[in-house]
Amino acid sequence: MSTPVGAVTAFLAEQFRSELEMFRAALDSAQGDAFHTSRLGHSPAWHALHVAEWMRLMILDDRTPNYHHLGWEDNARVQALGTQPAPFTETDPCEQIMAALDDTGAQVIAWLEQADDSALDGEVFSAATPGGTRPRRAAMGMQLRHIGYHRGQLNLLLKS
């Protein structure tokens, strides 16, 4: 028996698909060396890895101890996730970094497309909250806004 897909998860799947397409378009505009060049704090490569890592942690609840681009590496909760080598670094070829982002995005969308709305219940990791978790529903909205925020950051840094 298959689980019915929820209206909220279906909506979120479409929103993540759309936001990730726009984020990818902003990343694609960083041609050649610009993809690996830090301006205004970070390179487009870092932004891609950062967004992929946060989606992997907060949406897919992947606790593989190899996070290095969360931006909270000095936080005790992030340090407690472990310190295995990162699967990708900012200096890796653009194609590898983009493939990692695309793969994580596809996993997020696939999970949402098959989930019913009750899959959004419960808590997920949060470095910033006092208890170390936040409601999954709130985290989903935050991650959508987070991707949009970094798309804006990319647009600014590529103009500088």
Task: Give structural notes.
By secondary structure, the chain is mainly alpha-helical. 54% of the residues lie in helices and 4% in strands. The model has no long low-confidence stretch (mean pLDDT 93).
**N- to C-terminal distance:** 54 Å
Total DSSP E strands: 2
> What's the average pLDDT?
93
* Coarse morphology: globular
**Level-2 CATH architecture:** Up-down Bundle
Helical segment count? 5
- Count of structural domains: 1
Structural class: mainly alpha
Uncertain residue ranges: none
Per CATH, the superfamily is dinb family like domain
Strand content: under 5%
N-to-C SSE string, H for helix and E for strand? HHHHEEH
Pfam families: DinB_2 (PF12867)
Organism: Deinococcus aquaticus
Protein name: DinB family protein
Question: What are the key terms here?
Answer:
mainly alpha, single chain, Four Helix Bundle (Hemerythrin (Met), subunit A), 160 residues, 54% helix, two-stranded antiparallel ribbon, DinB/YfiT-like, 5 helices, globular, DinB-like, DinB family protein, 4% strand
Give a topology summary.
Blueprint: H1 7-28, H2 44-58, H3 76-79, H4 94-114, E1 123-125, E2 133-135, H5 136-159
Helix pairs in contact: 1-4, 1-5, 2-4, 2-5
Summarize the structure.
The protein is mainly alpha-helical and 160 residues long. The protein has helices at 7-28, 44-58, 76-79, 94-114, 136-159; strands at 123-125, 133-135.
